[in-house]
Amino acid sequence: MIPAQFDYLAPTTVEEALAALGQHGDDAKILAGGQSLLPVLRMRLNAPEVVIDLGRIESLRGIRDDGDAIVIGAMTQHSVVEHDPLVAEHAALISKAVEHLADHQIRHRGTFGGALAHADPAGDLGAPALALGAQFVIQGPGGSRTVAADDFFVDLFETAIGEDEILTEVRVPKHTGWGACYEKFVRVAHQWPIVAVAATVRVEGGTIAEAKIGLTNMGSTPLRARAVESALVGQPATEDAVRAAAAQAADGTNPPSDLNGEAAYRKHLATVLVRRAVLNASGA
Ligand SMILES: Cc1cc2nc3c(=O)[nH]c(=O)nc-3n(C[C@H](O)[C@H](O)[C@H](O)COP(=O)(O)OP(=O)(O)OC[C@H]3O[C@@H](n4cnc5c(N)ncnc54)[C@H](O)[C@@H]3O)c2cc1C
Known about the structure:
Blueprint: E1 7-9, H1 14-24, E2 28-31, H2 37-42, E3 50-53, E4 63-66, E5 69-73, H3 78-83, H4 85-90, H5 92-99, H6 104-109, H7 112-118, H8 126-131, E6 135-140, E7 143-148, H9 149-152, E8 153-155, E9 158-159, E10 166-173, E11 179-185, E12 195-204, E13 207-216, E14 223-224, H10 226-232, H11 239-246, H12 263-281
Parallel strand pairs: 1-3, 2-3
Antiparallel strand pairs: 4-5, 5-10, 6-7, 6-10, 8-9, 11-12, 12-13, 13-14
Helix pairs in contact: 10-11, 11-12
Bound molecules: flavin-adenine dinucleotide.
């Protein structure tokens, strides 16, 4: 289908984009890589009067080292994040998750910030961002504010970004030396996950010293498997110990039932994928 007619704006600064957003309010929509927005427009699930393309705002692109964090610009394409050496060294969980996100074409157009702002519960970036304790920098008419990952994902397709605001960058605390694995369960290649698990662990002398685990598609937002994280600390990185901790992976989750699987099946998958992801991340 062809989208409904809209006006197209392509500002070159965040300030211009915010001014356009302020002027057009509810009638405007931000365009990043367009990989989620364009299908929505083509299906006429949304018909904004104005589309504000962030593609010419250079300050929103790129990845930099900022001391104890890696900072990823919202308009940085998935393919850039995937191959970035800073991300691989200090936030390997993100590199591993992006590798599994859709196909090459979509990774080339889609953006890190666009995927997180879209907040699809089956999206591959929410769980790693949550597990790593990312901070979301959001700019609005009154200036910039920073929102912790725990508060960023509000509900299905809903984040803390206000209607007059733009996500500008994501700060990811460094996890240098941590092992990482993203286990994604799909029916066919390049699909959204039925369930996925983002795990990163720090192992000291064969013992799990710290563990952070995010779950994808186990509720309306990405979730932390906190019971498993606590159960893993101090345990040896062995099959038996990890299996026992992973049994709690579905605690407190509320996964959907759909054509790809019932909620009970997803809960079972979560325990299996957590075990695999933690063992892989800990090099066991
Ligand atoms: C066939 C197909 C398969 C896919 N498979 C996967 C998959 O397996 N895993 C996965 O995670 N994703 C998948 N995706 C989605 C892909 O990751 C998209 O890149 C992503 O969801 C949206 O990013 P985008 O840059 O294209 O944003 P857009 O589509 O341009 O925007 C998405 C939404 O976010 C808003 N937005 C974008 N940027 C900002 C910003 N900076 N500030 C405020 N709001 C903003 C837009 O207004 C819009 O509502 C798939 C997409 C397609 C088409």
